Amino acid sequence: MIQASHPKSVDITAQQMIFKAELDKVETVWDRHAAMQPQCGFGETGLCCRVCWKGPCRIDPLGNGPKVGICGATADVIVARNLLRSFCVGASAHTEHARHIAHTLYELSQNNAPAYSIKDEAKLIDVAKRLKISTEDKEILDIAKEVAEVSMADFGKHHGEFAWLNAVLNPLRKEKLASLGILPHNLDSVVVNGLSRTHVGSESDPMNLLLAAARLAAADVSVMAMGTELSDVLFGTPMPSLTTANLSVLKKDAVNIALHGHNPLLCEIVCDVAATMQEEAKKLGAKEGINIVGVCCTGNEMMMRHGVPLAANYLSQELTMITGAVEAMVVDTQCIMPAVVETASHYHTQVISTMDDNKIFGATHVSFHPESAVEGAKQIVRLALEAYKRRNPDKVDIPNHVQQAMGGFSYEAITAVLKKLDNENPIKPLIDQIAGGNIQGVVLFGGCSNTKVVHDFNYVTMSRELIKRNVLVLATGCAAGALAKSGMQTSQATLDYAGDGLKAVLAALGDAAGTAGPLPPVLNMGSCVDNTRAVRLANDIAMTLGVDLDMLPVCVSAPELMSEKAQIIGTWAAVIGLPVHIGVVPHVTGSSLVTKFLTQDMEEVLGGKFIVELDPIEAANKLYGEIQKRRQKLGI
Ligand code: SF4
Ligand code: SF4
Predict the structure, then answer these.
(1) What tens digit of pLDDT does each residue of 39-51 get?
(2) Among its keywords, does the record have 4Fe-4S (predicted)?
């Protein structure tokens, strides 16, 4: 198995801060991972059940211990039930995210959210049309109101069309899911239904539990599209722009504010407000004013829309503070380690939580609401200014390896470039290059970072291996962060790593886009909620060819996956017909039925499946093999 150059991270700025953490005697996620070893084998295999208080029960897969729980639940039932429960949590996180955005759009349409505006009217009209809302002779705020109402109705709808599902799934896939009886009818009740099935004494048919998981996944892809597309309406649809990434983006002579989490409702306004308070920072001696940087998917949101530098992805979040130069770590929701408060206590950093339903114990809480967003943002920036006065210069050590990165490749940005090659039929040049072999296929990297894998290593290794073989790489979430920090989102990466065919295509696209060189071989499509941008592109290709997604040479990889959100994203990718690689062992191996379904049988039923492979080179080989199989099926 190929080895990484460092035992914890291949991000050189992270390596430097891991070393500083040791000197500063600050514990990091890697120390806690080491302290947790050995991890529990029952949990690792999914064989532990805590559903009722007769438990916990655990199944002994190898020895002479119990083969069923106290109630008689088998290993298959326990594993399938645990999996469905995890997916319900992942889908709930996406649902709450989209609900906030849709609710804000509604409040805006009622003039109750003065800090927000419709930044992309064309996108609003496009969304309205796809939701089958007539836009003729209507004022823009009236269209916004209808779009918000139709979206919010999708959460609890019991009759009629599931509007976002219709906008996201192509007709062939909808037919397929309907024929299997797993077409969801709304967002909220599929989660409630999933949870209710896992109550003690409820469903004990593992296959039916897995089908419920597939139905939930189809609802999840729909709600994620809602979150992304309504965010574009409110904050602008991303277009390519150059920025920088890794911990070097922090500045010694600035008040550094790290925005972390997922929801653009907060970070957009903090950016706007900080721009108006630069002079206050300079008066305190911060010659470069206020420097906003991103962490995790809030970082991706800001990088995509405004070119804000990205400091860290999930695993390196604590390391931002170990530079000793972060005045405020402002968090909203999801993927925020509770440990950030302890890390901050070693420095002057103020951790500020902002959402009333996502408080962080030990953090200062500033209650953030769309109706009073500007006031909330001002309070946050003032806390950062105060913290700057407490900064200890002796503790400051910022890495100096600035890495350029190009972000902003939304569906609209990619089609705008393709339109320059064929205005009438923009998807055709892409199809021609795939058919001709200059692009062998496409791999979408998504997902998190995970202490079970050397930080960023799988992303960098796999993407280079695939690009060399003329596979175009798309990326979202912490995958996009890893590939931004490692230089894979630059023209130079195309020159250094792409195969000849891909290099020629990216050079032509770079010319069309007017960039200084070829487009990067990794196109950053945004945060983890933004994966549906890639689905829209794939559907365009499939529908032009008259086939479903299960025929396309397109794969998904989550080689450092961790969160429940990422688990259900991988699942919907398989449910819509794509092979999905994961680089960590999922907690299902205690059930041969569940394991076999996910890695084999699912392909026959739905066209997609999971491929578990821990070695990144071998994983790239397997995905390339899947791409070739699909090219053969298409006859290209
Ligand atoms: S539901 Fe059954 S297997 Fe689970 S904890 Fe209760 S008794 Fe044990
Ligand atoms: S990709 Fe995973 S770790 Fe990163 S922000 Fe999204 S869910 Fe969190």
Answers:
(1) 999 999 999 999 9
(2) yes
Contact 280, 255 (CB under 8 A): no
Mean pLDDT of 14-35: 98
Residues 47, 595: Cα–Cα separation, whole Å = 13
Q: How many Å lie between the centroid of ligand 1 and the Cα of residue 529?
A: 34
Q: How far apart are CA 25 and CA 188, in angstroms?
A: 45
Alpha-carbon span 455 to 457, nearest angstrom: 6
Position in ligand 2 atom list of the atom nearest CA 335:
8
Distance between start and end Cα atoms, the chain = 33
Q: CA–CA distance from 343 to each of 25, 319, 326 (Å)?
A: 10, 9, 11
* 421-440 confidence digits (pLDDT tens): 999 999 999 999 999 999 99
Higher-confidence position of 490 and 371: 490
Q: How many angstroms separate the CA atoms of 295 and 266, rounded?
A: 13
How many C-alpha atoms does 306 have within 13 Å on its Cβ side?
A: 20
Mutate to test the pocket of ligand 2, among 310, 316, 562 (most ligand atoms within 8 A of CB): 562
Closest protein CA for atom 2 of ligand 2: 448
Rounded Cα gap, residues 408 and 44, in angstroms:
37
The per-residue DSSP string of 123-147 comes to: HHHHHHHHTT---TT--HHHHHHHH
Region label for 526, one of left (φ > 0), alpha (ψ between -120 and 50) or beta (otherwise): left
Inter-residue contact 405 to 245 (CB < 8 Å)? yes
Q: How far is CA 367 from CA 80, 363, 378, 629, in A?
A: 38, 12, 12, 52
Neighbours of 446 (CB within 10 A): 27
Q: Compute the C-alpha angle 196/51/449, nearest 5°.
A: 90
Pocket test for ligand 2, best of 86, 259, 296, 316 (most atoms within 8 A of CB): 296
> CA 525, CA 239: separation in Å to the nearest integer?
10
Q: What is the distance in A from the centroid of ligand 2 to the CA of 446?
A: 9
Reduced to 3 states, what is the DSSP secondary structure of residue 326? Answer: strand
Measured distance CA(304)–CA(405) in Å, rounded:
11
What's the distance, CA 585 to chain centroid?
Answer: 19
Using the structure block, give the residue that is written with the tokens 């805590």. 50
Confidence class of residue 370 from pLDDT cuts 50, 70 and 90? confident
Q: Which residue has the tokens 């920090």?
A: 485
**CB 517 near ligand 1, within 6 Å:** no
Residues 623 and 555 sit within 8 Å (Cβ to Cβ): yes
Q: How far is the CA of 50 from the centre of ligand 1 (A)?
A: 6
Q: From CA 288, how far away is CA 282, in angstroms rounded?
A: 7
Determine how many CB atoms are found less than 10 A away from the CB of residue 461: 21
- Of the listed ligands, the closest to the CA of 50 is 1
Q: What token pair was written down for 122?
A: 């064309």
**How far is residue 556's CA from residue 611's CA, in Å, rounded to a whole number?**
10
Task: Using the mean position of ligand 1's atoms as its centre, give its distance from the Cα of residue 72 in Å.
Answer: 8
Give me the pLDDT at residue 161, please: 86
pLDDT at 630: 98
